[in-house]
């Protein structure tokens, strides 16, 4: 049962017929793991904390740098050199003291995945590391946990829900590991090499957050659909994808 304080705080959400008190209670009971507390992780965590997701687990072993401040909206110059997950956890807890927030000052590893995933309802990929992205995909399939992916470089972004319980296509199906996101010399293409516009990250993060809230409250969410954002034209495109019979992750 929601408290009077929660009714006031989340009132504009609760009045939505498709959310209501039961949807708010579902958010309150949920545990979400956010991997990567950079340009996507900051707004995703803010939206989910504000929406009343009961427990947020934040994973990032990186430290805040001055170059992050253009797009990683939780941080200020006073936070430079401090761990991203820990600073974000402090600020989210202050923003919404009605939820639990736990920080993990470490990079995502198979051992950490085995420790955390049994207790979570959803994972959100906010990393800019291809290695971590493939590890997230594999570990979420291992533990049968839905994963919301997101990525952005330059003016462009993408997002997709991977839902192992529904046998959906996985990240490796859509982006085979030997070619995805790599340039001719095998260097990763990310914001460090291509640059990034902050609002593009906010748009992709907003879609990730919306997908998460819809999933957690039992609303319909499209699977087997890759959404691509073109910031130059301010347009979304949606592509149907299918599980690949040869995929070494989801078809074994």
From TrEMBL:
Pfam families: ThiF. One of its GO terms (molecular function) is thiosulfate-cyanide sulfurtransferase activity. Residues 10-249 form the THIF-type NAD/FAD binding fold domain. GO terms for cellular component: cytosol. InterPro entries: ThiF/MoeB/HesA, ThiF_NAD_FAD-bd, Ubiquitin-activating_enz. Belongs to the HesA/MoeB/ThiF family. This is HesA/MoeB/ThiF family protein. It comes from Thalassotalea euphylliae.
